[in-house]
Amino acid sequence: MKVAIVHDWLANMGGSERCVLAFHELFPEAPVFTTVYNQSRLPEEFKSLEIRTSFIQKLPKAKDKYQTYLPLMPIAIEQFDMTDFDLVITSSHACCKGVITRPDALNICYCYTPIRYVWQLYHEYMKLEKMGLLKKLFIPPVMNYLRMWDRLAADRVDEFIAISRVVEERIRKYYRRDAAVIYPPVDTSKYKPAGSVEDYFLAVSRLVPYKRVDLAVAACSQTGQRLLVVGDGPEYTRLKEIAKPNVKFLGNISDEEIAQLYSTCQAFIFPGNEDFGLTPVEAQAAGRPVIAYRAGGTLETVKEGVTGEFFDEQSVDSLAGVLKVFEPGKYKPADMLANAGTFDVASFKKQFFDFVQKGYKQK
């Protein structure tokens, strides 16, 4: 069985890129097709992969401004020649599910979400985007085209796998397809509990608006509790301006330093609404509870009263209310470790490989 892996773009390291590495470990001979590849922003492991890029790779500033070329990506994806492959794993949050395979080949799509900015978040993105007249005229018809193409491309998929039940629901809504659920892999072996904890809460995130790190900053500024913020991004300056002295920004630090901070924090704060969310699982793998907004993937990764707590509204007062009464001593590291273990890399590989074998036999 000849296997290919297709990913939308390899331009930054994140959860979906970890999945690509896991897929490649399962199928080490598989080449990886992608629209754009930026080795400078990816770890060394990617150098051992056979990576084949699209024509977009050669376009001006594509490695950094790849999302500018989103309207061209359906064309780029369809240019990949899948003729030689019996199994095509499409690792998709945008267009790569739409590769054209042989009639007898199997396209299994591991779907992180239907394209956010053309489906469920379209109107929010349009409100956030600062647009001149030309963009206001240009973007809606482009998004309409992408929406129609994406719906058609979904019909080329033989089997969908969603990263969470939240995404499973979106696949059913927008593509009218059923999907299995296999949670993304988390390398829990990188984390371990500490002998004691310190008097700070922790947030680890890219500092972009939809992550809602501003809620954690404002809530801790209100309660006076210490908060350490790890990460960088366009929100950095604004967040520092609203923060009080009890909130400290650490910027980008090493994985080892993050693991240490996880293990000694009072709790990990996760104020965003994510499709899955790797960091809450990482915090639990380090033996620490999570305080999360009651929505999205954390409803599947955090056990209320056992491995963490939820706040009900995405507001400063709602989060601050939980922080004020939070008792870190009531949570048992063993419970956190057991829960995190269900999302481990080994578990992901076994579930995915079993799914592939079953699907290939049925095909």
Basic shape: globular
The level of helicity is 25-40%
Oligomer: single chain
Give average pLDDT, whole number: 94
SSE order in H/E notation?
Answer: EHEEHEEHHEHEEHEHEHEHEHEHHH
Q: What's the architecture of the largest domain in CATH terms? A: 3-Layer(aba) Sandwich
Strand tally, please?
13
Structural class: alpha/beta
Low-confidence stretches: none
Strand order of the largest sheet: 3-2-1-4-5-6-7
Largest sheet: 7 strands, parallel
* Radius of gyration, whole Å: 21 Å
* CATH class categorisation of the largest domain: Alpha Beta
Distance separating the two termini:
13 Å
Residue fraction in strands:
15-25%
CATH superfamily of the largest domain: Glycogen Phosphorylase B
CATH topology assignment of the largest domain: Rossmann fold
